[in-house]
Amino acid sequence: MLEEFIKHKTEILAVVENIDVLIKENTESADERLPMIKEQLLSNSFNLVILGQFKRGKTTLINSLIGKEILPSSVVPLTSIVTILKYGEKIRCSIFMGNGSEKNACIEELADFITEKGNPKNIRGVRCAHIEYPSPFLEKGMLLVDTPGVGSTFLHNTETTYEFLDHLDAALFLMSADVPISQVEKELLDTIKGSTQKIFFVLNKIDYLNPKEIEEIAAFNKHVLEEMGFVVQEILPISAREALKAKLSRNDVLLSQSGLLNLEDALGQFLSLEKGKIVLNTAISKANRIVSQTLSQIGIEKKTLESSEEELENRINTFHKLVANLNQDREDSAYLLKGESDKLCLRVEEMLKLFEEKEIPRVKKRLQDFFKGNQDANPTALRDEMQKVIKDEIVAGFDVFRKDSEDIISNSIQETFNRFTNRSNNIIVEFKTAAEILFEVSIERVEFSIELTKDNSFYYMVQEYTAPTDEEVKSVLRSFLPKSMSRKMVLNEMLERVASDVSRNCGRVRYDLTSRIRKTIDYYSKQLKGFGNDLTAQIEQAIQKGQERRKAGGESVLKELGLLAERNRRLDEQKGMLATVWNAVNLMDAKSSQAKMAMV
């Protein structure tokens, strides 16, 4: 196994080196992604990125894995800069700035660079922080990456996390035991779905719940994740806070209870059994993507050089029209989507209106029945009991409404977003196909995806709105009236309250649903604005290079065409070699699995 891994790693490094030479020949500049692939292979390490919504305990988890409070943590959103921990013989902290410079810092100064408090909105211009630490865990080749939480109070923190997603090789997705998985978390998971072959799902803060509650929240989150298309073998429950305490105090019992040992075992098994395959496959995938993009650019450059002035002008004009149509289609989609969201919100309104029309008479009837069944109760006690009846009935009524309507609403919303997702993908496919025909090249397919939350929980809560002074006045007034009149007065007061209480809680449900619809649309629209920009920029860059080389004219153009054809041939060879190594790597993994089964 080890010999095969080394052999395949050497083969990939050779291919990456060849690709690097060919790209420099074609563009006269290096692709910055290739040195990262080399470094990853040579160090036999990769990024385990800790992801999740803000305040899920990511920093505390990293500290517990290391066994030392290296990274600063807080009860408010704190981490604002991506921080990478890797193995080193001595403790060393390097701060890399956005302008390309590097600063050395001590651990005690770290908070001044990577936290929201010490470096608000990243006014210092920090790009990332690297910490070397002599940890046995890191010595195995794992790079732990702490990211700002998405959904933070600070938008730039969320953006920083999303910008780093291209660099992850495996992810540890941290959820919290005290709240169900959120829409923000689901959006992040959708983004990384195709970016990594391995995700560890971890449920933190289990010290807040009892075993049954932990089991329930884990099962709920597992169901949501599986609905999203993830294969979830297990969700690992831990308490990072208790684990860190245990390691600092060397308390083995507390460490065992924290659940961290199970997570460390899972990570250890991953390092020894799965890591090699993922390192190799990740490198191959990244290199293959670079080759495909370069081949497309060479094809467009070639077509730009071969075309007559008139043909080239027509191609460029046609391409600009395609880009304009793509932009217009994206604007139209956003506009049409807004109309669809209004329809969905109107449907919610209609369903709640029907519910309200039936619910108010039902609760009133229940109150009248209660009144008749409690003839001996004094007015004050009757009023208290009837308030409880209203509250219980409203809660029960909305529970029934939730059960009956949540699937209808969720399916309707999901169907709408599926339609628009398909529309967006069809638009980009049409653009890609037209560009391929126009320049007679093959272009990599890109896809857009979005999913609305399936968290159908509704928000309703019955509150008391009668001011104490009003009730005191009414109580005094009732004391001067006959009991029968006082009781009737209480009944009328409670009947009047039913309509307002039901309406108020319908309003809360309405706000909850429409807010979730509109938030999802906002997210969709933001993604839609940039969808396809990388593809258009890639084509524009190739056209520009071809135009520049045309200026040399005559024999220079013929020579350049010959060079492009040769680079194209050599890049195709490298692509074929990557495919061969890919097949061998995955065959190696299959053989390993068979061997393990035979041993069992």
Q: What overall geometry do the principal axes of the alpha carbons give?
A: globular
Number of strands: 9
Largest sheet: 9 strands, mixed
Side by side, the strands of the main sheet go: 4-3-5-2-6-1-7-8-9
**Domain unit count:** 3
Q: Low-confidence parts lasting 5 or more residues at pLDDT below 50?
A: 74-79, 150-164, 451-461, 463-473, 475-480, 594-600
CATH architecture of the largest domain: Up-down Bundle
Care to describe what's here?
By secondary structure, this protein is α/β, with parallel strands linked by helices. It folds into three domains: 1-43 and 277-306 and 554-600, Methane Monooxygenase Hydroxylase, Chain G, domain 1 (Up-down Bundle), CATH 1.20.58; 46-258, Rossmann fold, CATH 3.40.50.300; 314-537, Four Helix Bundle (Hemerythrin (Met), subunit A) (Up-down Bundle), CATH 1.20.120. It has 17 helices and nine strands. It has a nine-stranded mixed beta sheet with strand order 4-3-5-2-6-1-7-8-9, with helices on both faces. Helix 2 runs antiparallel to helix 11, helix 9 (240-249) packs antiparallel against helix 10 (252-258) and helix 13 (379-439) packs parallel to helix 15. 32% of the residues are buried.
